[in-house]
Design brief:
Elements lengths: L1 H24 L5 H13 L3 H14 L1 H4 L5 H20 L6 H24 L6 H13 L3 H19 L5 H21 L6 H11 L5
């Protein structure tokens, strides 16, 4: 359990840093963070605070779906937002296109590594992934269809609110699945979990939140 908790915490910390890198690149964010950023600009709250608020709100939607959170789920709600704000405080705005691309690609890669680490800890899915799997169970729809529908909705809402939609959004969509899929076998702690977690990754290539 100590190893699981340690891996969970550094995985979530790296995830927050990856979000900060992508924000500073100003080349586009993943769908949920486009939504988070748009809300942050409209409300005056920090990006990290919005991530926490939305994570908690999504977690409430688990109740009618009869989903049960784990330690990792609760930690996800609070720690990713915290580390996102820390990273944005530490990482200055980018000054050139080359550096912006380095931040974007580094952020996507780091995001995949962080996702593999925290999912591999096996202490519960993030609130957003739990919403997806809960809807799949309740509706009988396909993972890909439910996931695409959710992300299309939050992406459109975030774009209308002023979130950053760009080439980074497309690269994230294309790249995050394969990266997480490769990282998971390196970080899964319990052997008996390996088949089931890897199967989920292969099926839906989840953004691990």
């Amino acid at each position: 359990m100590i190893k699981r908790l340690f891996q969970l915490n550094w995985g979530l910390a790296l995830y927050g840093v990856s979000v900060g890198l992508m924000v500073r690149s100003n080349l586009g964010l993943n769908p949920w963070d486009v939504f988070h950023q748009g809300l942050a600009e409209r409300t005056g709250l920090s990006l990290g605070e919005i991530i926490v608020v939305i994570g908690a709100a999504v977690l409430l939607l688990w109740i009618p779906l009869r989903q049960r959170p784990g330690i990792g789920t609760i930690a996800n709600v609070f720690l990713i937002g915290f580390w996102t704000d820390v990273s944005l405080w530490l990482i200055p705005p980018v000054g050139g296109l080359l550096l912006a691309w380095a931040m974007l690609l580094g952020g996507i890669l780091l995001n995949g590594v962080a996702g593999g680490a925290y999912i591999g800890a096996g202490l519960g899915p993030g609130p957003r992934d739990g919403l997806m799997t809960g809807l799949v169970k309740r509706t009988g729809g396909s993972v890909r269809l439910i996931r695409t529908g959710i992300e299309a909705i939050v992406l459109a809402a975030g774009w209308m609110l002023g979130g950053t939609l760009g080439i980074g959004t497309l690269l994230y969509a294309v790249g995050i699945g394969p990266i997480v899929h490769r990282m998971l076998p390196l970080f899964i702690i319990a052997d008996e979990e390996k088949a089931s977690v890897t199967a989920v990754s292969a099926d839906c290539c989840p953004q691990p939140r």
